Amino acid sequence: DAKTTQPTSMDCAEGRAANLPCNHSTISGNEYVYWYRQIHSQGPQYIIHGLKNNETNEMASLIITEDRKSSTLILPHATLRDTAVYYCIVRVALGGWRIKAAGNKLTFGGGTRVLVKP
Amino acid sequence: GAGVSQTPSNKVTEKGKYVELRCDPISGHTALYWYRQSLGQGPEFLIYFQGTGAADDSGLPNDRFFAVRPEGSVSTLKIQRTERGDSAVYLCASSLGLNTEAFFGQGTRLTVV
User: Fold this and answer.
1) Half-sphere exposure of residue A93, counting CA atoms within 13 Å on the CB side?
2) B91 and A44: CB-CB below 8 Å?
3) Residue of chain A minimizing CA distance to B100
4) A51 touches chain B (CB under 8 A)
5) pLDDT at A106 (0 to 100)
6) Burial class (CB in 10 A: 0-12, 13-18, 19+), A58
7) What percent of chain A shows pLDDT beyond 70?
8) Rounded to whole angstroms, what are the CA distances from A105 to B1, B23, B56, B97, B112?
9) Is A35 on the interface with B (CB under 8 A)?
């Protein structure tokens, strides 16, 4: 799976949008971008994923550049409960025989430690 | 239960002892994963099961680590002759299929003294 690069940490103000960047310049055409977050003392939580189109769900929006070499996770109205470590992960889209080879195996990097301040 | 359940939540053991960590996945989830997380780092893949069989155990650090899932549901991670370096949070996750999102448990914090 392609390697990702994220800032180590960032602060954002409560109620404002939080924009979390991720670089994945070596991403392949069959690789998805996934975002997970981990709140202190909890297991990672799935947020969103996408291949090439922008995606939105109840938690966040994912903006992927046209060349797919970078993406941004947007938390539209950050709350104090959004304080967590956010992981950007690139994972191959599985099909056929490769399903058994890779499954849902995720390669986590260091993530971005996001602190939402009042 | 509604989510992935891991027991115990905390385990303290002496160096050289044997430990077992249990994971109850979400009902109906065929895929189950074990990860290990050291302080200040992201989770590190250990092993995953598709049904009863281990489909990929490439992340197990050495032969002191072993995991089973005999009936395709509950899984147990077993660590023999524990070492202080095994101290970490051990996370379990499950997913409905291999291409669907993984749901993680709260983890078991293992401390080897």
Assistant:
1) 11
2) yes
3) A104
4) no
5) 84
6) exposed
7) 88
8) 24, 17, 9, 12, 27
9) no
